[in-house]
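debug: dumping io for the single-chain case to check the tokenizer round-trip. Nothing else runs in this session.
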Amino acid sequence: MDAPDGHDAFGDLIAAGRKPAPVKELGGNVEGRESIGRQPIAEQVAKRILSMIKSGNLKSGDRMPTEQQMGIAFGISRPPLREALKALTLMGVLDSRQGRRYTVTDLSPSRLVAPFNSMMSFAEYDLNDLFHSRALVDMELVRLCTLNAATDHRQRIMKLAVDGDAFHDDPVAFRLIDLEFHQALNDGSGNRMLAAIAQGLYDVGLDVRRVASAMPGVIPKSVRQHCEVAEAVVAGDVDAAVQAYRRHLGHVLETTIQSMADTKGR
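debug: decoded output
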């Protein structure tokens, strides 16, 4: 069911957001050369390699030195070195093939967020945390899109919003154009990394939102909200675009909660 007029469920969620947990110091005092600083050695090594990539000392396609050479260069034993290399591989920064040396990957946003997307696909998640995360990422993308998108891209966003009106009775088709609409907003931002993260967050919980999209009144309201966002983006009105998108996320959150309740009640 649609939310009562004037009720901002997402605003309530943000207002009641949880306080972040205090950050603890990493590592501890360890005897020997492998106790430099307070961070674990593996983390220090990973950060040094990342720093070399950031500075341009290491570039996409470069082969890393052998483990023996890196151990000598960093002055550490193989276990923490291998832990650092494994972490960078899981992050998508390095690539390791059987019997070959590590290489720096293409560092594309899609590759770098692939581990994140995979984790989110299989891990249990808190619905409120998910939508709070979407708010932080998506509303920044909408802001950037409103500022940066080219005129023809803004018109595409508007067309996708309006065309959704043809799918009131076809939830499957609407989900397709809904995906295209949100992806167009992300692409218009010009920030490929944030766009890739946003796509991963969008994909989480799709099974529940499939049910929600079939609920009476959900698609027409979503279409109206898409149009409100698109009109603000076309007009270059950042505040209006962000607020319209915030209302849309509130609608998605409420209908998702309702669909979950309905599913459990059956």
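debug: round-trip ok. Confidence is low (pLDDT under 50) at residues 1-7, 11-37.
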